[in-house]
Design a protein that fits this description.
Radius of gyration: 18 Å
Shape: globular
Strand content: 15-25%
CATH topology: Inosine-uridine Nucleoside N-ribohydrolase, Chain A
Distance between the termini: 17 Å
Number of strands: 12
CATH superfamily: Ribonucleoside hydrolase-like
Order of helices and strands: EHEHEHHEHHEHHEHEHHEHEEEEH
Strand order of the largest sheet: 3-2-1-4-5-6-12-9
Bound molecules: alpha-D-ribofuranose, calcium ion
Number of helices: 13
Helix content: 25-40%
Largest sheet: 8 strands, mixed
CATH architecture: Alpha-Beta Complex
Length: 308
């Protein structure tokens, strides 16, 4: 069965790798790609969504949603990892995009037009989904599910000691989505950071004679440089590709139903995801969380799906 999805993302190199997997998959119908401010500021996120689609030239063109700035005063981008242009400083030239509809409008319109059918795959902050919930009172009953890359089960962050980037960018929106009566699946940092890729990944990419190969060879090398220079790591993590894989090959993951929440006030913990781990408590479960991944199989599956 072909899954109809909207991908909400903040490209970002790892977002763009996930887009390659999705746009050429016969099992996914990417109805729209909606930009969200995160790795890069809003305007750049919108432009990068268009750039990725133009460079990949996929068999079916999705609608594009425009990002707008989030409301978080302490938001900071991640250009130090993804490059000044968010795409590995590859220097892509993109046509001026004509007036785009807002991401949250596209999300609401597509979900309302197909009640129960559309899944939202969130690979960036949850700003747009929270705004869709506020915009359309019927959104929560019409959306099929929300699958999110974000948060941390073990409480160790990648932006602060406790907060993961997507949640930390917009904690209030994450809180709203976590508390919404929607089928939610979370693929946290604990899972995505286990699936690491060495430099050998470059040799495993599609040939540069293909649009996908040309694109990936232009953006991925930058990530190896930034991970080494900024994080002191010799491997890279492609968080969003692993998160999307959970939707495409769920058998590679083990999920657990949990009660999860988002800290929005703590000085040291703002943006932290908190889960009820005390067995004695029976807090109502509000999401499923990926707790185990078949690391080697997931790594191979990501590479395989870049060739699909
Ligand atoms: O913490 C990793 C997440 O934050 C990924 O989605 C990455 O693209 C950034 O958005
Ligand atoms: Ca992302």
């Amino acid at each position: 069965m072909v899954r109809r999805i909207i991908i909400d993302c903040d490209p970002g190199i790892d977002d763009s790798v996930a887009l390659v997997m999705a746009l050429f998959s016969r099992s996914l119908d990417v109805v729209a790609i909606t930009a969200v401010e995160g790795n890069v500021p809003a305007e750049m996120a919108t432009r990068n969504v268009q750039t990725v689609i133009e460079q990949l030239d996929p068999p079916r063109l999705p609608r594009i949603g425009a990002a707008t700035a989030n409301d978080n005063a302490d938001y900071r981008d991640a250009c130090f990892i993804h490059g000044r242009d968010g795409l590995g400083e590859a220097g892509f030239v993109t046509a001026d995009h004509h007036q785009r509809h807002l991401s949250e409008k596209i999300i609401c319109d597509e979900v309302r037009a197909a009640p129960g059918e559309i899944g939202i795959v969130c690979l960036g902050p949850l700003t747009n989904v929270a705004r869709a919930i506020q915009r359309d009172p019927h959104f929560v009953e019409n959306v099929g599910e929300v699958v999110m890359m974000g948060g941390s089960f073990n409480g160790i962050g990648n932006v602060t000691q406790t907060a993961e980037f997507n949640i930390h960018c917009d904690p209030e929106s994450a809180w709203e989505v976590f508390h919404a009566p929607i089928k939610k699946t979370l693929i946290p940092l604990d899972i995505t950071s286990q699936v690491q890729f060495s430099l050998g990944l470059i040799d495993s990419l599609p040939h540069e004679s293909t649009s996908v190969g040309r694109f990936l060879h232009r953006v991925i090398p930058y990530l190896f440089r930034s991970y080494r220079q900024q994080l002191g790591l010799e491997t890279i993590q492609i968080h969003d590709a692993v998160a999307l894989l959970q939707l495409m090959e769920p058998e590679l993951f083990e999920l657990e139903a949990l009660a999860g929440d988002v800290e929005i006030k703590g000085e040291l913990t703002r943006g932290m995801t908190v889960f009820e781990k005390r067995r004695s408590k029976n807090a109502p479960h509000n999401l499923e969380v990926a707790r185990v991944v078949a690391v080697s199989a997931a790594r191979q599956a990501v590479i395989k799906r870049l060739h699909s």
